[in-house]
Amino acid sequence: MAVFSLEEAPGLAPVKELDLLILVGLTGVGKSTLVKALGLPQLPDRRALVDEYVLPRYGAKPPLPREERFRLTRRFREEFPGGVAEVLARGYAQPHPLLLFDGLRGEKEVAYALEHLPKAWFVVLHARESTRLKRLLSRQDAFDRVGLDPKELEALRSLAEGVLSQEELEEALSLAPWEEVLAKLKIVAEEKKNYDPEGPLRLLAGHPRALILNTEALSPKEEAEAIRHFLKL
């Protein structure tokens, strides 16, 4: 893991002057799996930057339920529209031929990074909400916890509206207890509300510094090969 700091220090260079590969995508789209397949030196990821530089601003510290993290990062974006991209662009890091950052979300974050990180390349990973939900149900990450009210079972179908079809919801319920489906569905629904998944696709489609990958159609190995070809590595 490359050293990252918001303070200038010996051996560190401004991130805006470094060659970066930035992954863009929502939870469950396959970023972590791709990170392992690429094997590139990494900057601290999005979660680490939020823990270190965003949450303390509001007197909070991890672990937090995901909905509380969403609330605080939304508040941060109200103050700093570039969100996590602003933290990244203001930082200093150990120079490497290519550094990987996982990852940005939403059109405004990506637009800020495009403008302020001129040596960055972007890989947008996308998958359907139903696919992301199934991946969340299978990964068993404690970070995905949310606060649950047993009475929320009645709201499950309402929450799924606009996110999952009836068939997709039934499939999810066949994979895990309703409490777990509800917890993970809240993450998918809240992310869709906070970060329009189509925004980065609209912004980066056809852009010379961007590659868009459908993670439902490609294996992690195929994704990594496509990126290496794109970057001529």
Features:
Rossmann fold; alpha/beta; three-stranded antiparallel sheet; globular
Per CATH, the superfamily of the domain at 4-128 and 197-231 is P-loop containing nucleotide triphosphate hydrolases
From the N-terminal CA to the C-terminal CA, the straight-line distance is 20 Å
User: What's the rounded overall pLDDT mean?
Assistant: 90
Shape: globular
How is the CATH topology of the domain at 4-128 and 197-231 named?
A: Rossmann fold
The helix/strand series, from N terminus to C terminus, equals EEEHHHHEEHEHHHHHEH
The amount of beta strand, in percent, is 5-15%
Query: Using DSSP, what is the number of strands?
Result: 7
Q: How many helices does DSSP assign?
A: 11
* Radius of gyration over all CA atoms, rounded: 18 Å
Summarize the main sheet.
Answer: 4 strands, parallel
Helix content: 40-55%
Low-confidence stretches: none
The level 1 CATH classification of the domain at 4-128 and 197-231 is Alpha Beta
CATH architecture of the domain at 4-128 and 197-231: 3-Layer(aba) Sandwich
Strand order of the largest sheet: 5-3-6-7
Structural class: alpha/beta
Tell me what you see in this structure.
The chain is an alpha/beta fold and 233 residues long. The protein has a domain of 160 residues: Rossmann fold, CATH 3.40.50.300. The chain is built from eleven helices and seven strands. A four-stranded parallel sheet has the order 5-3-6-7, sandwiched between helices. Helix 1 packs across helix 11 and helix 6 runs parallel beside helix 8. The longest helix is centred in the last third of the chain and has 17 residues. It starts with a strand and ends with a helix. 36% of the residues are buried. The model has no long low-confidence stretch (mean pLDDT 90).
